[in-house]
Amino acid sequence: MPEERTIQYGKNYSKKEYILRILWGFAYPFFRYSPRLFYGWRNTILRVFGAKIGNGVKIYPSAKITFPWKLEIGKKSVISWEVIVYNLGSIKIGEECIISQYVHLCAGTHDYKSPGFELIKSSITIGDHVWIAADAFISPDISIGNNAVVGARSVVVKNVPKNTIVAGHPATQLSPKPLNP
Q1: What is the pLDDT of residue 177?
Q2: CB 164 within 8 Å of CB 180
Q3: Residue 5: what pLDDT?
Q4: How far apart are CA 160 and CA 133, in angstroms?
Q5: How far apart (Å, rounded) are the C-alpha atoms in residues 174 and 98?
Q6: Cβ neighbours of residue 175 closer than 8 Å, sequence gap 6 or more
Q7: What residue segments make up the domains of the chain, in order of their start?
Q8: CA distance to 18, 28, 90, 159, per residue, from 141 (Å)
Q9: Strand order across the beta sheet in which 71-73 lies
Q10: Residue 99 burial (C-beta neighbours within 10 Å; 0-12, 13-18, 19+)
């Protein structure tokens, strides 16, 4: 018979984080329902909530950002349609990156071995000039090096070295030698 789990609610966030989550819930419709070309407006809303957003960043209105205060994006990067930025921990995206439509950046999970199924707040770091193609899933605690490419629908469960192409489920290196050495 499987072990019974006791899930503890309410102990995963500080009082400040709960307040920020409530405020973000009220502000999110102004982000979500803004016109497509209002990139500066959405960047301003995110900055008000503590995000570090570089110049020229384009975030599409349907992107779902869990905690703006744990997000950092370098200049001229793009977060496309329906991207999920599940950043329970920090997510750092470098300069001139493209995060294509339907990508899921998942910086949080649970301790499945624990009877309490505790929340684990992880992080994701994406280097400069990275392209994460459509519908890819990036697991918690992943680092993607500069100039890397993650193929469409890939599931990244290991760090991606700089100057490489990975694809598949799980993602494996496709480029026989590094790109742009």
Answers
A1: 62
A2: no
A3: 45
A4: 14
A5: 19
A6: 163, 164, 165
A7: 15-173
A8: 24, 26, 10, 8
A9: 52-53, 71-73, 91-93, 124-126, 142-144
A10: buried
Residue written as token pair 């992080």: 123
- Largest Cα separation within the chain, whole Å, is 55
Predicted TM-score (pTM) of this structure: 0.90
Six token digits for residue 144 = 């993607």
Instruction: Return the half-sphere exposure (C-beta side, CA atoms, 13 A cut-off) of residue 6.
Output: 1
Which H or E element spans position 65? strand 64-65
pLDDT tens by residue, 19-58? 999 999 999 999 999 999 999 999 999 999 999 999 999 9
Nearest to 173 by CA among 7, 54, 81, 158: 158
Place of tokens 């570090």: 52
| Residue whose token pair is 């019974």 | 4
pLDDT digits (tens, 9 = 90+) for 151-174: 999 999 999 999 999 999 999 999
DSSP label of 75: T
Residue that is written with structure tokens 């503590």 in the block: 50
Which residues touch 153 (CB under 8 Å, ≥6 apart)?
133, 134, 135, 136, 169
CATH class held by domain 15-173: mainly beta
